[in-house]
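Readers outside the structure-tokenisation community will struggle with the description of the input data as it stands. Showing the layout once, in full, would remove most of the difficulty. For illustration, here is how one protein appears when written out as sequence plus structure tokens:
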Amino acid sequence: MKLTELIDKDTFVFDESITTKNELFNSLTEVLNEKGYLKNEKKFLKDLYKREEIVSTGIEDGFGIPHTKSKYINKPIITFAKTSRLSDYIALDDTKIYIVFLIALPRNTHESHLDLLSELAKLLMDSEFRQYIKNAEQADEITTILSV
């Protein structure tokens, strides 16, 4: 399955009032729940944090890729958020995260979140790609960039 097949731009969050990882995860979880992707909002959020406790999913240059497999997800989804620089979500290069792709898959899915994570990480290694994402202001721009 390709990244673009799992993206639902109606779940994207563009909100510079978000300043912490907690606010970010709550906002994304709320949107996913509203759009019917979750069976249980609180338990999904708990799974997301459980994964984050292992090691931060912040990668570099302000980007993060939180991901989880959870039995509380109805169907696979990749969503996106652009926020202010988060005070408590730090990348491996010590930059503050403000752009996130969240990968959420049902626990019993045959798709590997690691394959999707790898595909997305490869795209984010390209500085030009990262810049396009940073400059995007609307969901349609993100989906166009990912489709190229």
